[in-house]
DNA sequence: CCCGTTCTTGGAAACGTTTCCATACCTTAT
DNA sequence: ATAAGGTATGGAAACGTTTCCAAGAACGGG
């Protein structure tokens, strides 16, 4: 062992100074490597004097343990994977924001991947999760039709939590989109609407399908038939909503009310309304999902269905941490539901007499 | 070495199957460990037959290299740190979205930390960057007054790129906020406004201070004095903007135009206008920074200053990758500027005769 | 035909931790 | 007094790769 005794000093001229290792600390403090490790990890059976000596050396050398070495030996990476389709969707980023705070507090770091709904990115990330031996995985709403991906996930054998998404064998946190869909549809039916358009997200996403279920239930309760033509799952943003709604509004028996996603899509709907010369709430009633600045500050204000995104991220993170620690709760895989809340503004009215 | 020859099979009953290691692959293929490593890393000097044999074994055993071991030995973690104050701000999340895509393509994974402008979180993340031996660091707009943090950063000796932020010795990508501020202030002065309120973000953030500089320059060009009372740096969201603007509008010589941030703050401004019984553009002209749905779809539409967020993230990511690879560009630390664009809508008018 | 290259492969030493085991020293109960 | 147990420390063997070095095979030029 021809290790330089002097510690972490630069050898050459332009070479960066070598970082201190645990052996350097041990040497500097005149103790064994294992004692340093014990002190660093706060294990019991260490005398106060030893502790002090070692910490002094640690500070002097600015020692910082190499986490790859720790991960290699201890089989814990202190890393959580986070998979989301689209980070630029503020609904997701707000949830992630909440989750990250909780994880940070527990000493974990988030590894983020945006998949853009592409299956190869999804499977690629699962592979990254395996190679990096991440300790857990947060799955934000994504397409369950991707069977390669869900298959890879099933073989993963890792603590996971799904957010607004259903993955078999994985606990999940969900907003009560079904109840919310029920509530707002009931509200519109109660106003007298019989033709209510539903512009929701991609059909394969759980929030959309749940919303649709609530919508159907409200119709069933009122003994109303559902016109499938009024249900428009959207794959893209506002531009698609725009043409879709234009077409819808031009039809002979046009909808008298529209339920739409609040992010991106609402904008397209408003444009379509304007370009068709129609106004809300007089000509068409409007309810949007997800409370956004646009919904709040449009004139008149647009009634919205909302729920606590930050909280949702936090709850998910804490369930995941529980599972990682193998807590008693670890068996529960029943979904946790968060309530939605309907904010009544001025975008709804009794439909005009035909 | 009493390693089980059979490969990665479970030993006990409920224990998870051990993952195959490179030695297992080597044994299965009847070759040396170093050959497996070479093939896995696509190094030259490997015969086709060897390659085939090894890949067969890799697939059979579902071998996936342990990235901690790779990182430990090769001193590359293939990991990029990403520090942002507030992930729920859509301006940031959109930039991160763009950056992540570029990094993903290059085989890197993003490690995300939200600091909420708290210095201890910032320094904690710098520590994480060191311990995890991350390969690079993306710094999104943050407070330069945090000297502990900037000090820690200076000692880091790691490829960094700052986005809309100034860090000494670090290359940066910035939107031309100064030019943008100049352009919109000139526009308002050109309309005849003499009292223009500027509601920008925290003064310590680069975009805000640059904007202010542009604002001042436009005033200087027109030989107008700047009333410091009209400059309101904001630390929080819409609620503060609301009360601030209310107070401003109530003053005897109220501003005839307002420049405001488009996210969060614009909403507060609109509320304040409404509650003061004033309307835009007749009573007050409005320009907002950052084109949001609200700006686009408010009636009348609100003129906005915008720039390409996704692009900005990508540019930053690519500069960082360049630096990591030690490219020729590595010396350049002059900031790269992205242009802003002024979208003229209907929120500006000639001020009314007093 | 031999010698210097270049190509292909194997062996073994790192990389920086944690953790198991052993040891030496104290207690304390029998 | 001695066995039994706990506490504080050190030594060394992992963890799973990459990479350096050496050595044999193939190759081409003189």
CATH class of the largest domain in chain A: Alpha Beta
**How many domains is the backbone of chain A divided into?**
3
- Termini Cα gap of chain A: 93 Å
Stretches of chain A where pLDDT falls below 50 for ≥5 residues? Answer: 1-14
**Which pair has the most extensive contact?**
A-B, 51 and 53 residues
Topology readout:
Two copies of one chain form a homodimer.
Chain A: H1 22-29, H2 33-40, H3 48-61, H4 67-74, E1 79-84, H5 90-105, E2 109-114, H6 119-131, E3 136-140, H7 147-154, E4 160-163, E5 172-175, H8 177-191, E6 196-200, H9 206-221, E7 231-233, H10 238-250, E8 257-261, H11 265-275, E9 285-289, H12 293-297, E10 303-306, H13 309-324, E11 336-338, E12 341-343
Parallel strand pairs in A: 1-2, 1-3, 3-4, 4-5, 5-11, 6-7, 6-8, 8-9, 9-10
Antiparallel strand pairs in A: 10-12
Chain A binds a DNA duplex (30 and 30 nucleotides) through helix 2 and helix 4.
Q: Explain this structure to me?
A:
The structure is a homodimer of 354-residue chains. By secondary structure, the first copy, chain A, is an alpha/beta fold. The first copy, chain A, has three domains: 22-66, lambda repressor-like DNA-binding domains (434 Repressor (Amino-terminal Domain)); 78-174 and 310-337, Rossmann fold, CATH 3.40.50.2300; 177-306, Rossmann fold, CATH 3.40.50. The first copy, chain A, has 13 helices and twelve strands. Chain A has helices spanning 22-29, 33-40, 48-61, 67-74, 90-105, 119-131, 147-154, 177-191, 206-221, 238-250, 265-275, 293-297, 309-324; strands at residues 79-84, 109-114, 136-140, 160-163, 172-175, 196-200, 231-233, 257-261, 285-289, 303-306, 336-338, 341-343. In chain A, strand 8, helix 11 (265-275) and strand 9 form a beta-alpha-beta unit. The longest helix of chain A is centred in the first third of the chain and has 16 residues, at 90-105. At the A-B interface, helix 4, helix 5, strand 2, helix 6 and helix 11 of A face helix 4, helix 5, strand 2, helix 6 and helix 11 of B. Strand 2 (109-114) of chain A pairs antiparallel with strand 2 of chain B. The first copy, chain A, binds a DNA duplex (30 and 30 nucleotides) through residues 21-23, 31-35, 37-38, 41, 44-47, 50, 65-75.
